[in-house]
């Protein structure tokens, strides 16, 4: 019996890459998951099956009981919580002492439409590689942690998990990893992942656990630990934990997880901010509290480390007024330079401007019928308004009320 069970386990591990294929729509569409009361719980490009589970941002656990594949809809009912895992200690997780993690991208062409003009490519690295680079740099910034950011691509989309498995095995065998993450972006409407946390405009991160990994419970524990830390550091940063059919190569390491950082409708810059915030979560979960930096309070307050590396949100930090003032200054300098070229000297510029304000500007101002801006004139014009026979009765009632008010005001 023991040999039989061992054979089944080996066969399951050999079939693992196939279990991850066809688990995502991959064409920009998404499923909508509803509660039994028809409240939207999640919109995701991951295929939803009966029996899948979703732990939302409020730690409410739902299990799918109905799926309409044709309409890309599913329904789930709330089930009893399994109970949060033991709190992460200040010194981090036991066994996470190698100070090395890895990041790779199975769906290599996934991109962010607003920033890159396409939601996916099929020949070059997509935007997820830049998001992965930001996460990697952020983790390494905290201490002597090394992040291996795999730059391999695994085109085409079909069969990509089978190809990325080879790279993931190489990463796991290259050294003692404390964790390994397969970083993706989801498919969903823009507002599904967009979030504002502590004045940061970012995308949320959803953690995906593959339930067809025979020992997925150890990966699940790590996912809960990450969410617990994220909830304390950046509430609402983690959108939730989705338990999906598939293995996602998570059988290769007890702390292997898939991350959905934003959706194809979000900007890459917002996804980068979300990835840097989640990098803090990874570090604290694995290694304990963030190391203290020798900065003054004012320097820490101005620290832009969680801000986008490019294309900052318009209008932030007084950008609109600054732009208007800059434009006005440029127009003024341009006009002065034009007058200088026309008159041939700065004295000519001065005389031209003096003549304009003494004569032409005065004529323009004097031509304005200022009496028509007087309140008495405006009130009289309003009282004299006549409505045609086809006017709505509400307008006539307003006119009658206005005339009575005007007469009573005159009597006073």
Task: Please describe what this structure looks like.
The protein is 42% helix and 18% strand. The chain has 412 residues and is of the alpha/beta class. It has 3 domains: 274 residues, Aminopeptidase (3-Layer(aba) Sandwich), CATH 3.40.630; 36 residues; 38 residues, no CATH class. The strands form 2 sheets. The protein has an 11-stranded mixed beta sheet, with helices on both faces. It has a two-stranded antiparallel sheet with strand order 9-10. Strand 4 and strand 5 form a beta hairpin. Helix 7 crosses helix 8. The longest helix has 25 residues. The radius of gyration is 31 Å and the shape is extended. 35% of the residues are buried.
What is the CA-atom radius of gyration, in angstroms? Answer: 31 Å
The largest sheet has its strands arranged as 2-1-5-4-3-12-11-13-8-6-7
What's the CATH class of the largest domain, please? Alpha Beta
User: How far from one another are the termini?
Assistant: 105 Å
Assembly context of the chains: single chain
**What is the domain tally?**
3
Low-confidence stretches: 1-16, 310-318
Per the principal axes of the C-alpha atoms, what is the gross shape? extended
Question: Strand percentage, roughly?
Answer: 15-25%
Sheet/helix structural class: alpha/beta
SSE series:
HHEEEEEEHHEHEHEEEHEEHHHHHH
User: Averaging pLDDT over every residue, what do you get?
Assistant: 83
Beta strands, count: 13
């Amino acid at each position: 019996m023991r040999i039989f069970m061992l054979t089944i386990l080996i066969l399951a591990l050999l079939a693992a890459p196939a279990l991850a294929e066809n688990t995502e729509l991959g064409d920009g569409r998404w499923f909508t998951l509803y509660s039994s009361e028809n409240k939207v719980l999640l919109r995701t490009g991951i295929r939803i099956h009966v029996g899948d589970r979703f732990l939302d941002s409020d730690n409410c656990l739902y299990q799918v009981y109905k799926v309409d594949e044709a309409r890309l809809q599913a329904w789930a009912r709330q089930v009893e919580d399994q109970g949060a895992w033991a709190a992460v200690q200040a010194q981090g997780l036991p066994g996470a002492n190698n100070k090395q993690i890895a990041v790779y991208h199975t769906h290599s062409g996934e991109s962010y439409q607003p920033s890159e003009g396409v939601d996916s490519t099929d020949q070059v690295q997509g935007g997820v590689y830049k998001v992965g680079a930001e996460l990697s740099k952020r983790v390494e910034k905290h201490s002597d942690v090394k992040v291996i950011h795999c730059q391999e691509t695994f085109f085409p989309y079909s069969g990509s998990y089978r190809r990325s498995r080879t790279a993931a095995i190489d990463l796991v065998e290259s050294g003692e990893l404390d964790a390994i993450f397969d970083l993706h972006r989801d498919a969903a409407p823009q507002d599904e992942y967009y979030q504002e946390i502590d004045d940061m405009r970012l995308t949320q991160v959803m953690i995906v656990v593959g339930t067809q990994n025979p020992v997925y419970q150890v990966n699940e524990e790590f996912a809960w630990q990450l969410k617990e830390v994220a909830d304390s550091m950046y509430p609402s940063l983690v959108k939730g934990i989705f338990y999906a059919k598939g293995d996602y190569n998570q059988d290769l390491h007890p702390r292997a997880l898939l991350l959905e950082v934003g959706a194809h409708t979000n900007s890459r810059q917002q996804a980068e901010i979300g990835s840097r915030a989640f990098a803090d979560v990874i570090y604290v979960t694995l290694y304990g509290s963030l190391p203290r930096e020798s900065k003054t309070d004012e320097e820490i307050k101005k620290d832009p480390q969680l801000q986008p590396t490019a294309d900052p949100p318009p209008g932030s930090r007084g950008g609109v007024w600054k732009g208007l003032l800059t434009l006005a200054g440029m127009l003024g300098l341009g006009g002065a330079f034009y007058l200088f070229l026309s008159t041939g000297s700065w004295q000519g510029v001065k005389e031209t401007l003096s003549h304009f304000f003494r004569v032409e500007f005065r004529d323009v101002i004097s031509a304005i019928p200022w009496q028509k801006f007087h309140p008495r004139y405006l009130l009289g014009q309003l009282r004299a308004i006549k409505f045609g026979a086809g006017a709505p009765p509400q307008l006539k009632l307003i006119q009658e009320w206005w005339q009575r008010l005007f007469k009573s005001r005159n009597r006073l």
